């Protein structure tokens, strides 16, 4: 894929689906963690809407938007620094942007303050963002089309 933005969009969307599926499976087996879609829903909705159909739908698309943005940043990073260690670059971008969002932007916006009292959610976010970064980096590395050098 030649288009860096389209590649990042695709990689971010797939990686977000993987992250959301991983979170869903963790909750299914009894791991008590906040979900990416609940945190994303708080960008748009009052906390009382978490756990509702509207909260899930808005949160799911919000988490997709954040994931796509992270995928695009990763794709641009890989384009300008080279595709060596693309998966590591994906992990670094995902962890940096994810934790900047949680620790910097969420408090500024006055949302998701409960996360400071949920060590399991923070640990799971660390693991989930790691998997997200690996997934996005892998997709970018495999689908990136390098233009021939002009001599």
Number of helices: 5
> Percent of residues in beta strands?
under 5%
Helicity, in percent? over 70%
Biggest beta-sheet profile: none
- Radius of gyration (Å): 16 Å
Distance between the termini: 22 Å
Q: Which residues sit in consecutive blocks of at least 5 with pLDDT less than 50?
A: none
Summarize the structure.
This protein has 151 residues and is mainly alpha-helical. It has helices at 4-28, 36-41, 53-81, 86-109, 119-143. Helix 1 (4-28) crosses helix 3 (53-81), helix 3 crosses helix 5 and helix 4 crosses helix 5 (119-143).
Write a structural description.
There is one protein chain. Helix 4 crosses helix 5 (119-143). Helices cover 72% and strands 0% of the residues. The protein is elongated. The protein has 151 residues and is an all-alpha fold.
Features:
mainly alpha, 0% strand, elongated, single chain, 151 residues
Task: Present the secondary structure layout.
Elements: H1 4-28, H2 36-41, H3 53-81, H4 86-109, H5 119-143
